[in-house]
# Entry
Amino acid sequence: MNIDSTNALLKVPTGALQIPEFPPADVGINQRDIYLSLVIPTYKERGNIANVVKILSQILDEFIPGDYELIVVDDDSPDMTWELAQSLTQEYPQLQVMRRQEERGLSSAVIRGWQAARGKILGVIDGDLQHPPEVLTQLLTAITNGADLAVASRHVDGGGVSSWSVVRRFLSRGAQVLGLMLLPGVLGRVSDPMSGYFMVHRESVAGATLNPVGYKILLEVIGRGNVKSIAEVGYVFCERKEGESKVTWKQYVDYIHHLVRLRVSTGKIGRVRRKINFPLDRFLRFALVGLSGVFVDMTMLYLLSDPATLALPLTRSKIIAGEIAILNNFLWNDAWTFADVSMRQQEWHQRLKRFLKFNMVCLAGLVLNVLVLNLVFNYLIPNRYIANLIAIAIATIWNFWVNLKLSWRVTDVK
Ligand SMILES: Nc1nc2c(ncn2[C@@H]2O[C@H](COP(=O)(O)OP(=O)(O)O)[C@@H](O)[C@H]2O)c(=O)[nH]1
Ligand SMILES: [Mg+2]
# Structure
């Protein structure tokens, strides 16, 4: 009998990046719960993947035979890593492969893999053999001994980096110090918060919506999960033999973005934010667009009314300049601040309607601006610049709030 034992590709989970409390019913080759699900995120690891699967399988077959699965999550690598990995599933039935075509990025790849996992323990290891596979058994032992989270660390006894340049060592440590200042409650709990090699109990992360940017998934797990006890195991970050690192400057920028986002959404600030439920990200984008409008307005005013240029009358120039600034702001807000909403209503008449509403709201905002300026200046603070700042702030909030409720609102309800 010729049974094809190749696993089908795993379906890519969609929606929020949230780990379910129990394994989803429709995953994988067999429905039985298992102990460990180890995710291997890959991008262009064709030269490594076969070796990685072979070594990991050897170790785990010996340590927890039949009680684990390997999940390769490949972001549609141009070198077809996913295809090669898929061809290995005949020989390694505990291996499953997910090919992502819609999403990208290391952290979300790991979470998508965990979402499809059957294991009680969720783990991650790089697919390039820089994480020494033999440390797996120590991590598993630490978990069995009661840790919620076991992290392979370069900065405890037995740990280190083998071939990093001075620059990369410096950046890595700098990133850690910055993180410690911004998020001591998260980064202070482990010696190597940048580690991408760890295992965690499903129940410690289930239910939390993870929201990572870039590379540092462990920060999310500690910051948003419910991790009580942490164990660390030293390891030496090995040299890469095949393929190349995908770390670029973007990862450092992403990292800072990630820290700030975690800072704002967890802890005290996060609790207050959730209570008042204010869309801060959106507001900041709106305010930034508003600032760009000031420059447009100023430039237009100069071009139209300055004696050195067109020398039109001031009021007429200001009306035109103001209107162009409003148009500028509308276009940016439509394409960026409220992109999620406008994407669902792209027809021209819908756009025009939004623009007209935006225009009206901004004009009303201008009236409000003048009113507040007069009130504050005459009755509260007799300093015209401070009064103006307050007036601008109030008008901006007004503009934002009314536009949020009125202009960028999904009106086509099915
Ligand atoms: N799925 C997926 N994997 C990625 C992505 N970027 C990196 N990886 C994988 O994540 C692991 C670590 O990446 P690497 O570039 O080696 O980082 P470094 O070891 O810190 O230099 C490797 O297995 C990569 O193939 C990505 O965008 N998507
Ligand atoms: Mg690597």
